[in-house]
Design brief:
This protein is of the alpha+beta class. It has one domain: Endonuclease/exonuclease/phosphatase (Deoxyribonuclease I, Chain A). The protein is built from 7 helices and 12 strands. The chain has a 6-stranded mixed sheet with strand order 3-4-2-1-12-11. It has a 6-stranded mixed sheet with strand order 5-6-7-8-10-9. Helix 4 runs parallel beside helix 5. This is Exodeoxyribonuclease-3.
Length: 265
């Protein structure tokens, strides 16, 4: 079995002080993908930068204090890379991948966007460049007889069942028709599978992000924007998918919850 977990930590230094280190020490995951780490290597304590028993790939953003992704793996990767040859985004702390014996695993932090602002333009440019790379990645992995798993914060709720208040968010970044259509292309054209949705076809949710505002967490008024996106050959071997939702608001170390899936390799 290969167990993979992904979580947007909403600042790795802050999360480490609120429970992430303890969670990492207790997890049964073989690979952990992190997003929005917002930290340089030298800013992280050794227990986070190089935790015992893990090999780490840290990809901070050149814009200090923003973005950042990381991958922790128990086995040493055969290869690794940061960025996807996009030019604009290769040092933005939004994509990293490692290659293990049977699978390529990536950590993705897709821009969140903001309607009517340059941030939405940035998101659209990222999506435009990233889809062809996903096609290329799948072909390259198939040639090496490997599967692909792209984990992370995709910052798009694909269907109405992926967020609680979908009617009020039809014009909001993360649920725009064009964003949802792009994610459909990832599944339909690029040939990937939304692993958790396949495990939970009816919904609602299971949600992975809840705003810190109001009673969103207590009322389970969330969004499902954190995905395991896999090639079909890996997706069919998913045995268990779970959202590691904190037992209460005060036990949260991020506004996201880890999304963990076990695969029978």
């Amino acid at each position: 079995m290969l167990t993979v977990s992904t979580v947007n930590v909403n600042g790795l230094r802050a999360a480490a002080k609120k429970g992430f280190v303890e969670w990492l020490g207790a997890t049964d995951a073989d690979v952990v993908c992190l997003q929005e780490t917002r930290a340089e290597h030298e800013q992280l304590p050794a227990s986070v930068r190089e935790p015992e028993g893990w090999h780490t790939l840290l990809a901070p953003s050149s814009d200090r204090g923003r973005s950042g992704v990381a991958i922790y793996s128990r086995d040493a990767p055969e290869n690794s890379r940061i960025g996807f040859d996009s030019g604009e985004f290769d040092d933005s702390g939004r994509y990293a991948e490692i290659e293990l014996r049977d699978v390529v695993i990536a950590s993705l932090y897709l821009p969140s966007g903001d309607v009517g602002t340059p941030r939405q333009d940035e998101k659209e440019r990222f999506m435009e460049g990233f889809l062809p790379y996903l096609v290329e990645l799948r072909a390259r992995a198939e040639a090496a007889n490997k599967d692909v798993l792209v984990c992370g914060d995709w910052n798009i709720a694909h269907q109405e069942i992926d967020l609680k208040n979908w009617k009020n968010n039809r014009k909001s970044a993360g649920f725009l028709p064009e964003e949802r259509a792009w994610l459909s292309r990832v599944f339909d054209e690029a040939g990937y599978v939304d692993v958790v949705r396949r495990q939970y076809p009816e919904g609602p949710g299971p949600y992975s992000w809840w705003s810190y505002r109001g009673k969103a967490f207590d009322n389970d008024s969330g969004w499902r924007i954190d995905y395991h996106v896999a090639t079909e050959e890996l997706a069919v071997r998913a045995q268990d998918a779970r959202i590691e939702r904190a037992p209460s608001y005060d036990k949260r170390w991020s506004d996201h919850a880890p999304v963990t899936v076990s695969y029978d390799l």
